[in-house]
Amino acid sequence: MSGRGRHVVLRTGQHMPLLGLGCSQMGGEELSAAVTAALDAGYRLVDTAYFYGNEGVVGEALRRWLGRTGTPREDIFVVTKLPNIGMHTGGPEKFLKKSLDQLRLDYVDLYLVHTPVGYKAKNDTDVFPRDDQGYPCLDDATDIISVWKEMEKVAKAGLAKNIGVSNFNIKQLRKVIANATILPAVLQVELNVYLQQPQVQEYCRRQNIVITAYAPFGSPGRFNTGCKSGSCPCDGDGGCGWVLEDPVVRLVAESHSITPAQVLLRFLVQQNIATIPKSANPTRIAQNNDIWGFKLTETEMEALKTRDKGEAGRRFGPNYAYYQRVRDHPEFPH
Length: 334
Ligand SMILES: NC(=O)c1ccc[n+]([C@@H]2O[C@H](COP(=O)([O-])OP(=O)(O)OC[C@H]3O[C@@H](n4cnc5c(N)ncnc54)[C@H](OP(=O)(O)O)[C@@H]3O)[C@@H](O)[C@H]2O)c1
Prior knowledge:
By secondary structure, this protein is α/β, with parallel strands linked by helices. The chain has a single domain, classed as NADP-dependent oxidoreductase domain (TIM Barrel). It is 34% helix and 13% strand. The chain has helices at 28-40, 55-69, 91-103, 144-156, 170-178, 198-207, 220-223, 247-256, 260-269, 282-288, 298-305, and strands at residues 7-9, 15-17, 21-22, 45-47, 77-82, 108-113, 160-166, 186-190, 210-214, 274-275. Strands 3-4-5-6-7-8-9-10 form an 8-stranded parallel beta sheet. Strands 1-2 form a two-stranded antiparallel ribbon. Strand 6, helix 4 (144-156) and strand 7 (160-166) form a beta-alpha-beta unit. The model is unreliable at 229-233 (pLDDT under 50). NADP nicotinamide-adenine-dinucleotide phosphate binds at residues 22-24, 47, 114, 166-167, 188, 214-222, 244, 259, 261, 276-281, 284, 287-288.
């Protein structure tokens, strides 16, 4: 299914699909069906994380699909991530081995440090440990350079074909790069038409780091509950940050007879930015991958670039309720 223009080449020479299925906020039968629908629709990348607690379901769905179709394992690009409780000596090896067990794989194609913010672990399963007052057990001593050295070990051991980071800012990337023997292949960050991060894009381009954009639709399932019901203050004009409702995105979609979601994804892959939309809906899963038969014009790309809201477009930032107290950590990136 995958052809020219659907991949980006990583610094290791490995080809990474530009589009994959995001697997957060799904589990059980729903996730299993989503992974199967995605692979059937031609996706060749799945993005999961130890933090999501669903690697077992992903692994089982993958195993069944490979068996049914006779597709070799090497044709699928599997991404998972080091949890925030594993940011210490031996953490990456220990947690990657646990992920591989769950995924039923010998290696992952890409292993990412999920976040620069480390937590003090209570055990191996509580990925968001809290103290008696309910505050996250942050590990203020998190040392991203030594974490990266541990990541290099799992790459050298062949447990991960590529290693990278997620949610790191430019300063943190610089720090890692200045001390690395294996350079990060990928930076996975929140990025979409409302949060385009041109400086991060430019820095990564210069450093030969491929960007994967998460939340390409602004993660509406997580952040917008009222927009469609009419109770949202933006009245559906996109002012709430729900980028799927943006008027320019909608105009471009209408002119190509495609959906706003397809515009948002095409906007990214056309710039060689990989992306991992999440959907549990088989029709939308297939539609989100149907972005290879058209091209946005230069004028359309420029018009979409003007929709950037800068930091105001960030949803997973300091105002995200989930990050209460987490933003006090010395390595909080935003
Ligand atoms: N590294 C990190 O820290 C990090 C953080 C967040 C996310 N991620 C990764 O990135 C992936 C994607 O991010 P995300 O899930 O937060 O946000 P997203 O992909 O921007 O949005 C997902 C939401 O959009 C809806 N949707 C999907 N396709 C659609 C379409 N064609 N039209 C309209 N709505 C559509 C989905 O609903 P339905 O399911 O009902 O279709 C879901 O509610 C995650 O699954 C995860 O793998 C990584």
